[in-house]
Amino acid sequence: MVQVRLKDGSVREYPAGSTVLEVAKSISQGLAREALAGKVNGKVVDLNYPLQEDAALELLTFNDEEGCAVYRHSSAHVLAQAVKRLFPEAKLAIGPAIQDGYYYDFDVPQPFTPVQLEQIEEEMNKIIKEDIPFKRLEISRPEALGRFQNQEELYKVELINDLPEDAVISCYQQGDFEDLCAGPHVPSTGRLKSIKLMSIAGAYWRGNEKNKMLQRIYGTSFPKKALLDEHLFRIEEAKRRDHRKLGAELDLYSIQEEGPGFPFFHPKGMILRNELENFWRLEHKRRGYQEIRTPVILNRGLWEQSGHWDHYKENMYFTKIDEGDYAVKPMNCPGSILVYRAKMHSYRDLPLRWGELGLVHRHELSGALHGLMRVRCFTQDDAHIFLLPSQIKEEIIGVIDLFDYFYNTFGLQYHVELSTRPEKSMGSDEIWEMATNSLRDALEAKQVKFKINEGDGAFYGPKIDFHLTDSLGRTWQCGTIQLDFQMPEKFELTYVGEDGQKHRPVMIHRVVFGSIERFIGILTEHFAGAFPVWLAPIQVRVMPITDKHHEYANTVVKKMQELDIRVELDARNEKINYKIREAQTQKIPYMLVIGDREMEQGAVAVRQRGKGDIGAIQVEEFINTVQADIKNKTIF
RNA sequence: GCUGCUAUAGCUCAGUAGGUAGAGCGUAUCCUUGGUAAGGAUAAGGUCACCGGUUCAAAUCCGGUUAGCAGCUCCA
């Protein structure tokens, strides 16, 4: 008998050799039906994996990230099998599960056509109907090499050769199809329900442009058709909300041929920006930050000292001034450090929290540019905090609180990831350990759940990343908190301690919005252009029914203008329906219709975005409502 | 940057076996004074992205450049 500890903490006994599926069945039929794979002592395995000794077991369904990945990965194998059936000459490369589905790369003489894509999808559905079992085979390296060489699957041979010495090499077979694969997989192809192939794209073998370009087929799959439909709907919805489209329609910004990747902000986009910045300044002031501003162009020596000249050159822009080499700043930290160095600091002054809305320029590949999300110049809502090592935990907690407050204000959910030391990095192990532990301690003290990203930290220190989830469930990395022991060292920063001696301060780099430009893009898509009143470029539009009502409408407008409400009068010679339609497409939160009735009673007829006509109220009462929306940052 | 695709009016798009362009929306003017998502008429507006080639003739065919889109790579 073996003892199996389940997710709920209970321990059950099973005969040795019982499979994961058998355990699932013993718990409930429903679970057995839903289970896609198991997780034994933290390792994801097939459902028919036999339990030979005591273990902790978790059953994975589509709702678990890992279960979902197994499902998609099995889908990719079905895709490959379908392609091999229809195009036997196709060579297999790799086919992993990804965020919203899976892909498989093939080496074929001709790119796939959309018609062929449909045929492949049909074939996949056939394979699913055939309900072919997935069989796991563990084989030796020579056997694996032999097998795939025979099949002339040279990409697979290359993969096998690159596997580490001690790797267990496994193969999965489903009927006549066989693929090199670590697994695990669902028990049989029939477990897959709704599959769909999404697109075809070129992709280089191993992502390297020097290698051959392969044909990549993207697909997705779900255990229920309703889930697939929902996914497809989300894609359509994302197109409708695309900030590039809405940015033009709402006249927020433009990008012109004269400046690829350098956005132009129009008056309405500037209102958004300024509101975000006002909010940012106020909240930072409240939390003990001061604001600084450092130059955009600084000399070569500085960038050599900071390490950017060596590590970041390809992304930087350069210029010459009076024979001297200068660079346009790609980051704000060196500037902030120079401000710190401008005078002596006592331990009594720390922590020093210096915010900077700094415009940075980075050379991004032309193919990477994307609306406001990926640009060549952007404003980081940066801050550098100089502190004593003993203040780290408390200070990080303060930053986490600030981030939480910001994201909640926009109705954005988030999750947190802690990134640890990467291979290429500076500094001693002790320092890294201590820095990483401080970040972890702060997260734990705040009881924030987090995921660990091994080896994904910055070269100068570990970091905490905040990933926002927007209204469509997409995630965006925005905020980041980075702990840095290297820059203070390189620039020989000091403070005078209690003992009268010089000591090295620690630095925290952090951004909340990340980039104001990108954040505007995210907000545009999150709200589908229907910004909350406090951000809306036009908050109220007043629409008189005929020109008899213009005078009264004007007094209403004036009243609001005096209170800094962003109000517009639509005095055009158009029917009320027409004016409403336009205000609606412009996503203006409040429309005020003014006719005889309102004029007589000193009232306005209010139409609220998303709700429609909500009736007439007195002007003063309406003004109070709007002001409350602005003050409370109400979202509707 | 690489691969593929695209570029016609402010916007969305049609068009031509190669013979110098068209719609809807928007804009302007006039008529209409209309109560919760498009009232009517008239007009203006384009070196068909840019440079070069083929041709009697190029917006149309070919090459290059630039920009955009999708993917790869990378990231705030």
From TrEMBL:
Positions of the TGS domain: 1-61
PROSITE patterns: AA_TRNA_LIGASE_II, TGS
Root EC class: ligase
Keyword entries, A-Z: Aminoacyl-tRNA synthetase, ATP-binding, Cytoplasm, Ligase, Metal-binding, Nucleotide-binding, Protein biosynthesis, RNA-binding, tRNA-binding, Zinc
Keyword Thylakoid: no
Domain Aminoacyl-transfer RNA synthetases class-II family profile residues, every copy: 266-532
Cofactor note text: Binds 1 zinc ion per subunit.
Named cofactor requirement(s): Zn(2+)
Localization: Cytoplasm
GO molecular function: ATP binding; catalytic activity, acting on a protein; metal ion binding; threonine-tRNA ligase activity; transferase activity; tRNA binding
Reaction equations catalysed: tRNA(Thr) + L-threonine + ATP = L-threonyl-tRNA(Thr) + AMP + diphosphate + H(+)
Gene Ontology annotations for the cellular component aspect, listed alphabetically: cytoplasm
Enzyme Commission number(s) of this protein: 6.1.1.3
BP terms from Gene Ontology: threonyl-tRNA aminoacylation
Pfam families given in the database record: HGTP_anticodon, TGS, tRNA-synt_2b, tRNA_SAD
Signal peptide from the UniProt entry: none
Record's keyword annotation contains Cytoplasm: yes
Chain residues that bind Zn(2+): C333, H384, H509
Subunit and interaction comment: Homodimer.
Similarity remark: Belongs to the class-II aminoacyl-tRNA synthetase family.
Name recorded for this polypeptide: Threonine--tRNA ligase
Originating organism: Desulforamulus aeronauticus DSM 10349
